[in-house]
Amino acid sequence: MARIAVVAGDGIGPEVVAQARKVVDAVLPGVVEATEYDLGAARYHRTGEVLPDSVLTELAGHDAILLGAVGDPTVPPGVLERGLLLKLRFAFDQYVNLRPSRLWPGVTGPLATVKPGEVDLVVVREGTEGLYAGAGGSLHRDTPAEVATEESLNTRHGVERVIRDAFARAGRRERRKVTLVHKTNVLTHAGSLWARAFAAVAAEHPDVTTEYQHVDAAAMFLVTQPQRYDVVVTDNLFGDILTDIAAAVTGGIGLAASGCINPEGRYPSMFEPVHGSAPDIAGKGLADPVAAVLSAALLLEQLGHSDAANRVTEAVASELANRAPGVPLRTDEVGDRLAEYAAG
Amino acid sequence: MARIAVVAGDGIGPEVVAQARKVVDAVLPGVVEATEYDLGAARYHRTGEVLPDSVLTELAGHDAILLGAVGDPTVPPGVLERGLLLKLRFAFDQYVNLRPSRLWPGVTGPLATVKPGEVDLVVVREGTEGLYAGAGGSLHRDTPAEVATEESLNTRHGVERVIRDAFARAGRRERRKVTLVHKTNVLTHAGSLWARAFAAVAAEHPDVTTEYQHVDAAAMFLVTQPQRYDVVVTDNLFGDILTDIAAAVTGGIGLAASGCINPEGRYPSMFEPVHGSAPDIAGKGLADPVAAVLSAALLLEQLGHSDAANRVTEAVASELANRAPGVPLRTDEVGDRLAEYAAG
Ligand SMILES: CC(C)[C@H](C(=O)O)[C@@H](O)C(=O)O
Ligand SMILES: CC(C)[C@H](C(=O)O)[C@@H](O)C(=O)O
User: Fold this and answer.
1) Which amino acids bring their CB within 6 angstroms of ligand 2?
2) Which pTM does this prediction carry?
3) Phi and psi torsions of B74, nearest 5°
């Protein structure tokens, strides 16, 4: 039995998570026990609470977390991001932020230069360090003398472990290539640490091809030649930006899945679609649940249910390949089709 | 008489700069006095010098600097970037890094969704602060306990002046729209400073439309809807990444121009193509000089020669609209055509 905490969240979150659960129950009947947690903008507005310690402790007792989407324009910037999403990433030491991007057959991407099936990359984004450490401050606020700082903190420990994960993943893929992305020519201290850790881990993996790119060049090549990437490993902020570009060139964040993973399983990993709560279409049954379902596939994979994960991924491939262009989708109908396919 | 310092630099730098000078001399005969400075990878290898103080002092005596490209894979990362390019940006207080992107008629971009003529945006990138301040360090280097930091420094002074420049530019454009890009939900201290300075300047420009986007969303929308942007103002590192995306979606960095501007003219501004020294094609006469020529047009504009700048820009538009697809270009022939057109 796998114990999953479900945070459906705000906006379209509950709608897409319902489909993900439907698909998981279909592919692995009776294996997952889900407990719902009410967190997000709605709870914040109702109670002022973002993530009570008692809830954090309860979440820690689960095997994994499935999250829909949290947030709403009415919540001040940073409150749910720092107080909930980043809090979970840091508290549960989710140092691998895994973001696969594929241009699926049937999906029209924005690039004239790329054909469906040609892009299949995964960004392994560091999840617990860098500019996300929250090490910043300000002085003389609201005066002409104001200064504000943000500090990127990088440790050999934190950098090396995520690079190891990237190489391990590359070793299980066909092309076995890892691209390190940083900005070593400007961020010389952190860049040097990343580059040296990368070289050290690469030396242990002679079967894996490696390359290095500056983040600006990588942003450009993701647009002009996304086919060239296999596994990309990069820091927290660069990964935030690059994964949205990768999502954009493969059909949009509506299809992008994500996992915040603690690979050792000491803490629960968390899986969530990259898209937000999309309040404009919430409650209408129009949201595409594919990103949530693919996130559930990453969850199954992480819990060791590789066959089930593959069946869910195949269900998505079939769904996308068979969508009639221009026909509006219904969230629950997509979920039904995926569940049926995945159940076999 | 305008006194221009020319740093042709490495690789294709001298080839493309020669065309830019040809065009400038054609459009404004006898107006520009150029002095050449030998800086870049070649000088570094020959003498170990990157930017001697005496040269910096001489450069300061010019009205503007035209730079081709510096760098070579044989120089360790950071040496020329920190020692030359960033040194000049900081020493000459070039706080506006101006990067226009247009999808010119005749140019095929990578996006199926965008037609030539539809994209016309300019990124106003902060040039003297943020993560480029060089405020970082490391401890316990080369041990498992190593930590490395990079600090983003932001001042109200530095942020407000570049935002003012962006609004001034927007006021002179047709759409009069400014998009602030930051990551206020994670970089809460610097983000708040940027957002408050932006709101204050916006209040003085009721005729300018404003919007805010997180950097990850902006990176995505630059790929899916670049048409939506007019003026984008952002910090140093975000601007580095976003301008390469903007270049990519408008036909590549081979066409992208850039100005590092000290708007008050207290110090010389510097103009350079965004592309690098491209050692692989250097000396073959194959480099496209358009980015260098467009950079020279930005230079002319900055020095008050708006008519000449417009004629050069029109020459480029004509050149690009009339290029026969698939025919390899010759650097000097392109320069000749542009000079002839610009001369009228
Ligand atoms: C919401 C925000 C904190 C988050 C991030 O910056 O990591 C999001 O953009 C993401 O990519 O998951
Ligand atoms: C070469 C490097 C220092 C520079 C930067 O990061 O600003 C370059 O990428 C640019 O965009 O001009």
Assistant:
1) A 185-186, 216; B 81, 85-86, 240
2) 0.97
3) -80, -10
